[in-house]
Amino acid sequence: MKVLVIAEHDNGKLAGATLNAVTAAQAFGAPVHVLVAGHDTAAVAGEAAGLAGVAEIIAVDAAHYRDQSAENLAVLVADVVRGEGFTGVVAGGTSFGKNLAPRTAALLDVAPVSDVVSIAGAGRYVRPVYAGNVMVTVESDEAIQVITVRTTAFAAAPSGGAAGVRERAPAADLGVSRLLGRELSKSERPELAAARVVVSGGRGLGSGEKYREVLEPLADRLGAALGASRAAVDAGYVPNDYQVGQTGKIVAPDLYVAVGISGAIQHLAGMKDSKVIVAINKDPDAPIFQVADFGLVGDLFEAVPQLADGLAAG
Amino acid sequence: MKILVPVKRVVDYNVKVRVKSDRSGVELAGVKMAINPFDEISVEEAVRLKEAGIATEVVAVSCGSAASQETLRTALAMGADRAILVETDAELQPLAVGKLLKAVADREQPQLVICGKQAIDDDANQTGQILAALMGWAQATFASKLCVEGETLRVTREVDGGLETLELKLPAVVTSDLRLNEPRYATLPNIMKAKKKPLDVIPAADLGVDIAPRLRHSQYSEPPVRKAGIKVADVADLIARLRNDAKVI
Fold first, then answer.
1. How large is the ipTM?
2. Which domain holds residue A304?
3. What is d(CA A76, CA A68) in angstroms, rounded to the nearest whole number?
């Protein structure tokens, strides 16, 4: 077997999810190659080459890979897989990986497996279904295994490798889609999906202003990423990329602080693997308390500033 | 333009599913079923495009057993013009559904297919991408905004870092995310009207594609339940416990 990890990046920097994907790929017990396709991506290829456990980087540079369109990348990945005899393809279970992996699998005529949380060898996986309320063991005899992996279920690959970088010619540009623009949230905070501490807010905050006023000092104190429930995103308090849950981001930090979040099943699906969960809510019957290690029933507008002050004092 | 909207019959999102005692699947007997919520958003978007004079016809399609007719009637009650059931009692996995949908798209020649981004039962998030690949069409997954501009489509997508906007050549496949729209409730008169709208049944075998499952789901289980912890007295108590018991700060 020979495994290809699809690197996720913005042409300048490797995304954290790729480090998790490299670790997951090791579970096949076969050489792991990483495909870095983009434009002017020498730095990304270099970063990937420095990961422990990587045998080789395949670098493909062309203007039509700059925007990472699924159409062009899927054709390229299928070419690389067929041309070089890969029998496994792994990508992070991010919006990038979910967009690309099924399209690639269809071109290869194999059934992809999404959101894998454990790998017991080629074609033996466990993945969540029904919003994480049920786990299923999936067995696949496909000649080429195409999977996406839940990033929180696999550790980040450490550095310490020195793989070679081999350049490969691009595939054709299909020219069917074009990126018009991106509005990406800029933040000095840690990346939500990989943060050690997450402070998350819900409808209980009441407005976007209150969300920032109440949660930012606490997040600053804890060095935390900020997250939100779907209700808070739908109400416009924060942008979509803050959403934690079944259809948002899946997080599993050491500490998750849920503020003014009732704990809908879709939200729990995104954070219930956190090591320690703190819930602050005025409703003692809120479902969030059923998963919280430490629950504080009270007015969040008093409790959260007290908590931030108390941490500062300590 | 003609729009094709695939819809799936799934366990209603309010139902707490249970694994069968022999772990062979989840208990579906007597469980409330409904249209997949993301597919409902897709139907709504297609109907709005028709109401705006952009779409000329909205065709809902479902692959599955005869019971999926009910799901198609929901789409018809929301405003789809007609429906197609690709009928089979066999287990269908996303790759097979993608192939069946391709066969339907080859017959129907839609300019746009709007799918839900994932079904809330298997959470696979694959069918739209698979269909787009098999058709050789452009794709825009996780759509939160969609505008048709002549021969192109402008789609805003919800991605991990925020939003991105793509321009796609038609025909194309779009998959709906939560914030694309808020689906309407079907009114009683429209539910009655939907009963008279055409619903064609095509046996899956007539489409001549390989739908045999490629994956085996050998064992289902419920994840360990997280135990509720304790209620703390006040903020000072919380800080002390985070420091001394949990040791996370």
1. 0.96
2. 192-313
3. 11
